[in-house]
Specification:
The complex is a heterotrimer of chains A (about 300), B (about 300) and C (about 475). Chain A is mainly α and about 300 residues long. In chain A, about 70% of the residues lie in helices and about 0% in strands. Chain A has a single domain, classed as Orthogonal Bundle (MetI-like fold), CATH 1.10.3720.10. Chain B folds into two domains: about 30 residues, no CATH class; about 230 residues, MetI-like fold (Orthogonal Bundle), CATH 1.10.3720. Chain B is built from 15 helices and no strands. The chains are: A mainly alpha (about 300), B mainly alpha (about 300), C alpha/beta (about 475).
Chain lengths: ~300, ~300, ~475
């Protein structure tokens, strides 16, 4: 029909306008401040241009590659390994028929998300305590000797992973639950009539329906790959494990405490941002090729 | 209707499916317990009598003795009740604003007729990844005169690009035929958004609204740097006062801790626990209300083809 | 017409008078961590203003509000955005600002002062000389080991230690604390933030480590943590850990969990900053266990002293006045006033009628005295000579005792500010030390790994830095 012409609807820009104004004020104008990354920022007077000096400082530390490596490994665990967990959680929850149990589970498992890492670190350190922590008590029941996980270099990354999962699994499943609700029940009804099992229904109906959401979440998270969770690492760090969990952000924080804080941390965010963008673009293109769906 | 002629047969659920359903339920309940125990432990700690606080172990969920002293200390802070009001204000106004602006933008970005659509999409992604330096944002806020105003806090992250994109995903589930039909009828974009999109994606609005709401409720840092009048401080800021992160010498400085004779015997950990409970409580109350949308959505989500 | 004219003249006169009055009362904007949230502050400020007016230097003090928990960030941001108070308390992050030439050189002010220059301890004066942007009147921040008095009284090994403090005496005491008093471990330290620093504060000197950089027998300066002395010391710590005398979870203990262990009787000994923290411990121990605490002297060995080394390069915290302030002299006046007799009376005794009651022959400290913070402008009690005696001492005996020990055994440090080009190296080198120290003490690495550490340390920048040290240290 002729009404579905290719003509652009400028009225839509009006809808977009408030968001654009927000971006302009809170993001675009301040982004010009990113020039700090290339200056020795001075509070009074002109900030001298120093080119790539701060980037050089960033990359020149003897520990930089260690730090980068830790960041990548921890992010890999938290973004890629963790990825299926909220989905599985949502799928399982969807199978629970009793509304009461369902509400109970939902109301409880999202709570840790509200706790700050200062608190969660305290909870987990106590939980993993070799002297009277719950986890080691459990090990005792199985006849295993107590083990200090918080200072164990090979275990600490898994502690980060587990505590992150504990904190976020319930909360992160909300997105998927909302998508699950939107799936037309008639799809399931016809599958039931055909005698499909639970797992078959999941494989052929639920997962494909969830695919757009899954892909979106995954690609977006890739943009934050170099973040790796400052608050968590900062609160769980101790001397024994510095070499394996020191990440980019904790490193930048320490250096920035002493010297040229603003310029230096801006250079680091710029670095993270550029890498993040590259990762999102690759994830988007990759995903389009594999699943046919990307970010847009 | 077809439904009346053939009433839904009670489909006999095969054993295997029942079994897997029970497995899931048990696993999930286990997860709930793993989460509940530490929180009940914090609650017990906060309600225990100060002299018996040392008896509270990691797995204790019943308070040792009973005392409301920790909560009394919080309540005694003259700014406490006021800060709750501030937080409620910030959360309600902020979330409403978030939902309106974000949904408008999400809708616009899903319409193929949007001019420069590619450009705007890329722009939003870039904005999401490249966070401007804090100092720059601070200076801009100062320039436009919002320093010290609650609005500087409310307006922060009016549009969270992550949530924006998620919302776009939900909107895309709505069949375009419905929207095109409305366009043919001459409806404006806002009308379409209000009368078609919104009713059909209530669970999306509930979800994103929940995310934004929680974000505002927990907001601490922006409030701490932009607000100067303690009468405007939100709850989180006041609570932090009781959770001093420094060394002992600074603890002495928190005058509020010693405003009772008993207070010198207060356990720092118990006080911290009470601040956590207070911060979580309102969310505990609101969430079940939001959960309603997750069951209603079943009716509205599926669109009659 | 005439009426209007006279009204106008009247108004102008009032305006001029108003300006004169306002002008006579300069305003000082003060920013001090946690001061704005303390309920006593409004009265506190009133007393100061009254006192300063009486002294002939009237002033209006406005306390800038900074929310708890983000003091450093907020102050940094304020300054960066041009909103600069007149009198600023820094607890770190001042160097960056000083390096940009934003802080006043305070030496001329101190020299001209009436009171401050007389209350500064030698270490404070040296710090001021080396880094004239911060001034702080406080005793050196030295840690003193303490144990509960009831345990001290019933343990002969404790008395033996005081009579003849040696490393072995400490070892014997740790053992007794565990075996005879049921402590879970002899000593606990805040490992999460400070590593083994609190242990070092007791034992460094006994192993011959007396400053950050030490001159070896070959006349060359060497970093203390790569010396054979350090290796010996770490062997001792590893032994303590292995035998359960050092808290096995010290690496994850934060200050509050460490203190709790002490009050609950799990830790036999802790090392607290004297006198302020020791005072807190003493009060709290009295309230929870009904006993006070006893400070102990450091062990003798190759040397004897209490750490951490007293740095004289710069103050780690203190007051600064920005160059942009329009009321610099007045701002400093406030500081000077606080260290004169009138100011000290307010600062140390609190609000009359609330924290103390003035009687004809003495000042009686009330039950509410513990609510009063007497260290806002500095922890020191120098120059505090109240005109009437006090009903009881302000600080617990334990704290006073600890303070004396601190002064007796403090060790001045020999070190230098790390230059910009070595900052990232230093970060890597410090982390290397922390990690090897932690692993050796907890037994994850054998003591032989120390040599490996020293090599790695040198490779990470230690060799260059040591060369640099020879040129700057005398």
């Amino acid at each position: 029909m002729h009404s579905l012409s290719k003509k652009k609807d400028w009225g839509l820009v009006l809808l977009l306008a408030p968001a654009l104004i927000y971006f302009l004020v809170y993001h675009i104008i301040p982004i010009l401040g990113m020039s700090m990354a290339f200056q020795d920022y001075r509070i009074i007077g002109k900030s001298p241009f120093v080119g790539l000096k701060h980037f050089r400082i960033l990359f020149s530390s003897p520990a930089f590659f260690q730090v980068l490596r830790n960041t990548l490994i921890i992010s890999f665990m938290k973004i890629i390994l963790y990825f299926p967990l909220p989905i599985i959680f949502a799928l399982m929850l969807n199978e629970v028929r009793s509304g009461f149990i369902r509400k109970f589970i939902q109301s409880t498992t999202y709570l840790p998300h509200f706790l700050s890492w200062v608190v969660i670190a305290g909870i987990w350190i106590a939980f993993l305590s070799p002297t009277n922590g719950g986890f080691n008590q459990l090990r005792g029941f199985f006849g295993l000797p107590p083990h200090d996980y918080m200072t164990d270099k090979s275990a600490i990354r898994w502690v980060l992973f587990a505590s992150e999962a504990w904190r976020s699994m319930g909360w992160d499943s909300i997105i998927y639950l909302a998508a699950l609700i939107a799936i037309s029940p008639s799809l399931y009804e016809s599958a039931d009539l055909d005698g499909a099992s639970t797992l078959q229904k999941m494989r052929f109906i639920t997962l494909p329906e969830l695919l757009p959401t899954m892909v979106t979440v995954f690609i977006l998270n890739m943009g934050f790959f170099l973040n790796a969770g400052f608050d968590q690492v900062f609160n769980m760090m101790n001397d024994s494990v510095i070499s394996v969990i020191d990440i980019l952000d904790t490193y930048v924080y320490r250096i920035g405490l002493v010297n040229m804080q603003y310029s230096f941390s801006t250079a680091a965010s710029l670095f993270k941002g550029v890498i993040g963008l590259m990762l999102i673009v690759s994830a988007h293109c990759g995903s389009k090729k594999i699943t046919g769906k990307g970010l847009w | 209707m077809v439904k009346d002629k053939y009433p839904p047969k009670k489909v006999r659920i095969p054993r295997a499916e029942l079994f897997s359903r029970w497995c899931f339920t048990i696993l999930l309940l286990l997860a709930s317990i793993l989460v509940l125990v530490p929180l009940l432990n914090l609650l017990a700690l906060s309600l225990s009598d100060p002299s018996r606080v040392s008896e509270v172990r990691g797995l204790t969920i019943v308070p040792k003795g009973f005392s409301l002293i920790n909560y009394k200390v919080l309540y005694a802070n003259p700014l406490f009740m006021r800060s709750i009001l501030n937080s409620v204000f910030i959360t309600i106004v902020g979330t409403a604003l978030n939902l309106i602006v974000t949904s408008m933008a999400a809708f616009a970005l899903t319409r193929p007729k949007l001019p420069f659509k590619r450009f705007f999409m890329v722009l939003t992604i870039v904005i999401m990844i490249l966070e401007p330096p804090l100092v720059a944002e601070y200076l801009v806020i100062k320039k436009i005169g919002l320093m010290g105003s609650l609005w500087a806090v409310i307006l922060y992250k009016t549009v969270n690009v992550y949530y924006l994109i998620i919302m776009m995903r939900y909107f895309e589930e709505i069949p375009s035929s419905l929207i095109e039909a409305a366009e043919v009828d001459g409806a404006t974009n806002m009308t379409i958004l209000r009368n078609i999109v919104f009713p059909l994606s209530k669970s999306a609005f509930a979800t994103i609204g929940l995310f934004y709401g929680v974000f505002h409720w927990n907001e601490y840092f922006r409030a701490s740097i932009y607000l100067t009048d303690p009468m405007k401080y939100p709850l989180q800021l006041i609570l932090r006062q009781f959770v001093v992160l420094d060394d002992t010498a600074s603890l002495i400085g928190s005058g509020a801790l010693y405003s009772y004779n008993e207070a010198a015997r207060l356990s720092y950990n118990a006080l911290q626990a009470s601040t956590i409970i207070v911060a979580i409580l309102p969310v505990l109350i609101i969430y079940p209300l939001v959960l309603k949308y997750y069951t209603r959505g079943v009716m509205e989500g599926g669109v009659k083809e | 017409m005439k009426k209007n004219k006279s009204m106008l003249m009247f108004a102008v006169a009032i305006a001029i008078l108003g300006c004169a009055v306002a002008g006579a009362q300069p305003k000082v904007r003060l920013v001090l961590k946690d001061l704005d949230t303390d309920p006593n502050t409004p009265q506190f400020i009133q007393l100061i203003e009254k006192g300063m007016a009486a002294a002939g230097t009237p002033v209006k003090i406005e306390v800038v509000k900074v929310p708890s928990g983000s003091y450093a960030e907020k102050v940094s941001l304020m300054i960066t955005s041009g909103d600069i108070p007149d009198l600023i308390y820094f607890q770190g992050s001042d160097e960056k600002i000083a390096m940009q030439g934003l802080l006043e050189d305070l030496r001329p002010y101190v020299n001209k002062s009436k009171y401050i220059k007389n209350v500064l301890d030698p270490h404070s004066k040296t710090r001021l000389e080396n880094y004239p942007y911060l001034v702080w009147v406080a005793p050196p921040r030295v840690r003193v080991p303490v144990i509960r008095k009831d345990w001290y009284d019933s343990l002969p090994s404790a008395k033996a230690l005081v009579a003849k403090p040696t490393i072995d005496a400490y070892y014997a005491l740790f053992k007794d604390l565990v075996q005879k008093k049921g402590a879970q471990y002899g000593i606990s330290i805040t490992g999460a933030t400070n590593g083994a620093e609190e242990l070092d504060s007791i034992f460094d000197a006994a192993f011959g480590i007396t400053s950050t950089w030490m001159k070896g027998s070959d006349g060359q300066w060497v970093y203390c943590r790569v010396t054979p002395n350090e290796k010996e010391k770490l062997t001792f710590y590893a032994k303590l850990y292995k035998e359960g005398l050092l808290d096995p979870e010290y690496l994850t203990k934060k200050w509050d969990t460490k203190e709790q262990a002490f009050y609950e009787g799990k830790a036999g000994m802790v090392a607290g900053v004297a006198p302020s923290s020791v005072d807190v411990y003493a009060n709290k121990m009295m309230k929870t266990q009904n006993t006070t605490i006893v400070p102990l002297p450091p062990p003798t060995g190759k040397s004897q002293g209490l750490g951490p080394f007293v740095d004289v390069i710069k103050e780690s915290r203190g007051f600064a006045i920005p160059v942009t302030s329009k009321v610099k002299d007045v701002a400093f006046e406030v500081l000077d006033f606080m260290w004169g007799p009138a100011g000290l009376k307010i600062a140390k005794l609190g609000i009359p009628g609330v924290h103390y009651i003035e009687e004809p022959n003495r000042y009686v400290l009330t039950d509410r005295y513990p609510e009063w913070v007497n260290g806002w402008f500095g922890d020191s009690f120098n120059g505090f000579n109240p005109d009437k005696p006090l009903s009881r001492p302000i600080m617990t005996d334990a704290a006073v005792e600890a303070g004396k020990l601190a002064v007796m055994y403090m060790m001045p440090d020999k070190t230098f500010l790390i230059p910009e080009q070595y900052i990232t190296n230093w970060d890597a080198m410090s982390n290397l030390y922390k990690e090897y120290e932690a692993d050796i003490i907890t037994g994850k690495k054998p003591i032989s790994a120390f040599d490996e550490f020293a090599q790695k340390w040198n490779r990470a920048g230690g060799t260059e830095l040591t060369k640099y040290a020879q040129t700057v240290l005398k």
